[in-house]
Amino acid sequence: MAVTKHALCGLLAVASCGPTPTQPQTPEVEWEGEWLRFGRSPDLAPQCAGVAPYMDRYVGALAELFDVAPTNTVDFFYVDDQSTPCEALGCARDNTIFSLVPVQEHELVHAVRSFEGFSQLMLEEGAAELWGDDSRAFPFRSDTTGDLLTVPDLASPDGLPSREYGVSGRFHALLASESPDAVRQLLRTTSPLMSGEALSLELSMATGRSLEEWATQFASYPACEHREYRDPMPTCQSVPTVARCDGGEAIEIEQYVACDDEQTLGPRDGEIWKYIAVEIEQAGTYSLFVPPDLETMQQGTVTLEECRGGCGSIVEEMAIPGSFTPGRSFEATPGRYLLRLTVPEFEAGWIRLWIEGSCE
Ligand SMILES: [Zn+2]
Fold this sequence. Notes:
Blueprint: E1 7-9, E2 29-32, E3 36-40, H1 51-66, E4 74-78, E5 90-93, E6 96-99, H2 105-113, H3 121-130, H4 151-154, H5 165-178, H6 180-189, H7 196-207, H8 211-220, H9 226-229, H10 233-236, E7 245-246, E8 249-250, E9 253-257, E10 265-268, E11 271-280, E12 284-289, E13 300-306, E14 314-320, E15 329-332, E16 335-344, E17 349-356
Parallel strand pairs: 3-4, 4-6
Antiparallel strand pairs: 1-5, 2-3, 5-6, 7-8, 9-17, 10-11, 11-16, 12-15, 12-17, 13-14, 13-16
Helix pairs in contact: 1-2, 2-3, 3-5, 5-6, 6-7
The structure holds zinc ion.
């Protein structure tokens, strides 16, 4: 199918980001997992140790989410400015990704989607935003409100204007929460060559609701920025779960965040970070406690988020060095939660925390 020949622009999509006729040089593959191979331009500093294994697991989680059987590996090439064929931070050329940063889940979504063929770009970019990375470096991700009716016509095979990523992603969140089967169907049956009008027709047929009806619902759907409405479930399925309690008591969770740690990711946006998951078994009142380390005065941020995603899912975020008193209390529903432990790129260190609350 012709559409699979198209380069798909990444986060900084621009109109000129079309296919190029020659196959770019690719670096040597330095790591190979079950689903993903990873290579890096030789003059780039090595990525953190957790990157390639994490993205490998992430591809597996996405394949399950989309019910797609990968027919090949995803090739992720971490490249420098001179070696990228993209006019963006990254792009997916079918299942081959070129990226200026070593970890970019947004492009992994495109690469996994490529096994069935890319969809109309309002849906394609919406899916990549909803199930992709949580980088906060892009201003267009803050504004997720806008006129949904105009977006399908703005998508073309050459790209979707980046200012529309926020609306497309948040609409995808609404669509996926109301009609998950229709989302999978639309991702399969639409193509980048499809006009906005044709997409509207497909949407009506798949969901029983017109674009106008969806736009009305979208206008009253909770609005929040990208990192909160996004669905972190593929991450939650790709990282280890650590114990929160021992017997009846909350225990200290101690984690080393450093590029040579096998779970640590980055660098991206001047940060390195790791994700770990915790289970909260009982509904109730909880609070996050991150005491400062007076010796190191480690800098960074601890973010606690419900794996369900959606507006309101980030229940706590604390800058570190923290405080000798717990953070604000929050009402938690039972389920899996994601901790993001973030430190500046060159300030690796230990982070200790508790989650106070029921250990029954
Ligand atoms: Zn994209």
